[in-house]
Amino acid sequence: CASKVAIIDVGRNESITYAEYWSHVRCVAHSIQSIPDSDSAEPQGPCLVAVVIEKSWQQTVGVLGAMHAGCAYVPVYVEAWPEDRIRKVLDTFTPKAILVSDGTMASRPWMQTLRDLVPVVNVDAAILVPEAPSFLPAPLEPEDVAYVICTSGTTGAPKGVTITHKAALNTISSLIKLHDLDASVNVLGLSAISFDLSVSDIFTTLRCGGTLTLPPVQSLTPHPDPRLWLHICHRYEVSHWNSVPAFLDLVLTAAESSDDGLPASLDLFWLSGDRLDPRLPGRLRQLMHRTAAKDWRIWAMGGATEASIWSNGIDITAFDGSIVPYGRPLPNQGMRVVRSRGDLRDAEVGVKGEIAITGLGLMEGYYGDDAKTRAALVTAPDGERLYLTGDGGSFDGENIFIHGRLSGYIKVRGFRVEPEEINRKLRAHAKVDRAAVVLRDGVLVAYIVTDAEAASFAEVEAELREVCQGALPSYAVPASFVEIDAIPLSTNGKVDVSNLPAIKTTTSSTSAPVDDVVLPRDDLERSILKVIAGLGVDVSGSVARSVFDAGGDSVFALRLMMQLEREHGIRMNVGRLFAAGDARSIAAQVREAAGARGAGDAQRRLELLDFSLDNTSSTEPSAIVLLVHGAGTSGLVWAEAGRHLSEAAPGAKVYGVSDRSITSDARAGLGFPSIQEYASELADMALEISGKSSSPPRIVLAGWSFGGVVSFACARVMERRGRGVHAVVMFDAPMAQQASPHLEAAVAKVRAAVQGPSGGAEEASQLAARAEGHFRRCIALLEAYDPRKGGGRALAATVVDVRPAGGSDCDWLSAGDKDALAASWRVDATAPGDHWSMITGGNARGAAATLARACQDNA
């Protein structure tokens, strides 16, 4: 259907229909075809077009545009490859054209110089030029080359895996049929364009007539943001997950810490490209059971870039073993285990050998390199063509099992990396005598023997890191550099990995060595060390030791971040946490996230908790929502509803409001002498936040109980200052509070909510006393504030007065009072729960829906 959405580009907040998509593709193809052929001799090999565009709808349009112009596409991972590598790829494959976009060119000025090398087509410009009436897409034959994907080579020169349309289409068509995929499929496109899982993301989706949902580039590199991926899956009802196992592991960790879990829309998972943790299917089953999802499946897939994405698969939905099988061949493909490269006969059942792939999916060869092609594509004694994968394996009579690498390359996050390529870069350094790069616990570690004339290793390390970052993809840059006296060798002269020392230095040359234990200097650092230890990482009690050198990985980082967020009511950035590494640096980030926003902010009695999703920070908000705490609570009381609101109103910036007294001095009670003064400081903050946008966003003030009254008073202050608010939403607010006979019962409820049913430890008792003092002071301020006194105009903003469906004992105003206080006062007496539960737990989503409606134009 032409009007169906083909691509959702979350990062750009754009979507395009199939009609728009194919129109754009034809325009790009026409621009490519309009480029005159080179004056050089007869072209060697297929016509190639390099796609040098970061993940976006423009990238996908570029891929299809190249094909419709009769060319194969060469994917360039512009987000991760340095300039030197991109230029080397372009020099190697001499494309007819380079496809770019406005965004890619703007963020990488050096790309302007590419115009001197080869014609450049800007997709954003090309789609504005109507195609010629006579334009016809170039006819494509099954044997034509569809794409050339670069893999690492030991010399540093890229190897181009050449795949035909027939080979790729066989894999894609087989899987569509196997899984009964149709136009309802919605795929989350996580994989980089240079990783062949992206071939399936694009072409499986388009062939089915489904939707490809693209996450923001910033959520993929340099550090993944699984919380945002999870949000995208919920919001856009993603049905199909296709990634390396590590990415699903991260999302499961995020879902396990979320009230919402996984969305029920997810019903098919494809995992491939790296080792699969046998515990993963069980964790997924638990989450899907929580979601009450039915008829979902998880498949483990295997194969090689040289064999058109995948060649085998197995349903592991019910898997509960210790070793995940590699699976069985897909239609028109075959898998064999041969004895060795010198003996290509089949290995006996149960005997280890090398896994080989056969069938329609095999590559044509390595682009322009006949010698490498002959070494990789061989002929078995029975005449069948084989691709030798370099993976050790065995066949048990039913399934193939993989036993690790036999050849030189390794996998990092699904990407193929040649350690020898990295070694060559390191050994070329004047101060390096020997080098060995190995994979340790999922990260690359470079062991270095320095020249006798070398100065400090810290200087050498910094120089080596700079060399690697300038010449290698980001995923191929070693995480750690370790100085050793000699590289241990085995009897056959190869690096003896088992005798390489454990990592003893941190990844940062400025960090303290492990042996120098730096003790915590305050309670925050002590608490962070406790959290780190509780998650199974031993930093020897030192706040200066990197958690990643001590065994922490990306999953650990995510769990650490989420626990700190829960404990401190903050939002942290996983990328910055990776960069920090040690407990002292992490503590500094916690302080910053908790509200230390400059010297002026330190004097404020209010602090903000940002409940907005990460993807709202790159665009100006359409609305700002301030959620004020109730008596005896902090802004965290709004945490669940605030995050639900971020999902329901993605253009809104959502903040919880706390006064600092409840999180600092137990004797302070409340830091304001009156509600009017509280409202004045809140108005200052609201105006400051909204003033950061070029066009003023709508402001919605909301609060529960005491916070509702403050919100109303703040709206009055802002209108007097000439900046009206869009709406005020009060959840069971005691306007014109009268003395209540239930005060002591309410105090007991507040204390119990904080301290728990059994009273608990001294710390909990102190917190309960703090909450009681805060509650009593808030009640005193409520009793001293009567909005009917003092005169003034009726509030111009819409007031939404939300009351529990079961009735309220906080409604002190008459209908006449309400009419006099606001031009529009709407009562909503349908909220589930009672005064104490109406915005939390199971009622949080309903409260968020009420707030989302208030953010709309017709509030």
From TrEMBL:
Presence of the UniProt keyword Ligase in the record: yes
Gene Ontology MF term list: ligase activity; phosphopantetheine binding
GO cellular component: cytoplasm
A GO biological-process term: secondary metabolite biosynthetic process
Pathway the protein acts in: Siderophore biosynthesis
Pfam family, any one: AMP-binding
Signal peptide: none
Protein name in UniProt: Carrier domain-containing protein
Organism: Phaeomonas parva
The organism's taxonomic lineage, starting at the top: Eukaryota, Sar, Stramenopiles, Ochrophyta, Pinguiophyceae
